[in-house]
Amino acid sequence: MLPRRLRACLAQDLRVASACSELALEITTLAPDAEALVSAWIAAASSEGDLWRDRRWIARRSALIRFLDVWGVEHDQPVARALADVVTLLSCAGDDRRAAARLAQPLWLEREAVLDLRKGLAALAETQTRLCIGRVAEQGTESDSTGATDLAVALQAAWHDALSDALLTFSEQTSSAIAAAATLACGADDAFASDVALVHALVPVGEVLTRPVADSAATRERRRWKKIEAKLVEKSEARRREKAATVDSTPQLAVADAPPAEVPKGHVLVVPAIQVTGSDRGRSIARGYEHIIGKPLPLVAVPDLAAVRTRLVFEFPYAQVTIDRLLADLIGREYTTFRPTLLIGPPGAGKTRLIARIAFHLGLGLWRVDATRDAGASLGGLDRRWATSEPAHPIMAVARTGSANPLMQIDELEKSATRSDHGRLWDALLSMLEPETARTYQDPCFQTEIDISRVSWLATGNEIGNLPAPLLDRLRVLEMPAPSHADLDALLEPVMAGIAADHELAPAFIAPLDGEEIALLRRSWRGGSVRRLIRLVEAVVNARETLAVRQ
């Protein structure tokens, strides 16, 4: 059930002479024209002396391998290539760099065959059981007088365990063979490999190479489990302390009456101490927010704006004016805070992604709100008396990021619900966008004044037609242009870099687009949606992988 190359590599007791004879029969059966080359190859293999340095042996094996490669292409027979690779395994020494390079890629591609065997383990175990004791009755039915059914169930389980162990061994040996082929192909020297056939060198040399990696992985796994155990112990202790505190039901005031904490420079006291009594839901309300209540939180400082602008213009070359107007808010400022802004532009112009990349390059925490799905005025928090009570979204963003100036992103602002049964998102925004009221915002959940004046608000939309005038009066409206056909060349490099990042690859691992591919994109994309351009480039990259010529 394994590919031919892997079968040869994993057969540790393989006798090269016998294997050559069997392989010669297969080659002449597939390609009768190769009989003379095969005979010469077998004859040269029987010569005495240092076989791996024998010029006759090298010449005849090379002629046979070359014939099989050409014959396989001419007759569209991939099996000929596999036979040529097995000839290479049997005929070359372990220090043959070219032979190892030839085998490294196909062995890597066939690694999946070992993993796919797991899908058939149950069927294999059942087949082996039937061969041993005949037809297997269904599990759970009454056994006959000989107890054959119970025996079959136990035997089938034993076969499954044995096959799983064998598969694990195959996987380890396959990885070792692949590692050895890649390393030897790069010119690594191994004294053992130079004296044996390549087929006998791959697995032992690979085991030596991969042992440090396996040891390191085992060490990391042990450290990971120790950290997990420590966290579990810590959580258990925290639950014990919390339970002990809950037992004391005497009504009390939390540190609300205590003197306010001293706020150092570059910090903001976002949530002061809140009123917590034993008779209401205050204890559960504050749970999860202990690290921000009554504690000054740091502000994210403004980084090098020139470097941030360079990176943003590289990713959005068509939106340079919009980027400059946004970053102008930070010029001369010590800490990052934007004016409340609404980006207006056509669908696919990259408004949402621009905000996300701004947050990334500035080091700001990002909190997204989808205006089309936000329920009423929940953005501003829900009252403590309700079972679904929760703080305002800016407080949730502060708690998640640990900073006093996260970036709030509201997508599709103009598509927010207009019904006011439970309040509207537009109305909830009004007091949070005004600096004076945001500094003393009354949170309905914590029931205290909080300071969210350093929180930045950036929203997106396609138009402003139905937005209420009080909301527009508090928002700066900037236009986000859609890229044109002339921006294609500037967009291709950042789009390719983004595709590489999505696949967790370095950009150098994806070859740049050639002239024919760029011409195809020019005909297919006439400007407009960046999302459509990304899909087109992804299709070109995927087609390149699919249509690439495989040896």
From TrEMBL:
Coiled-coil segments on the chain, per record: none
Pfam families according to UniProt: AAA
Ranges for domain ATPase AAA-type core: 342-476
Protein name according to UniProt: ATPase AAA-type core domain-containing protein
Annotated organism of origin: Methylobacterium oryzae
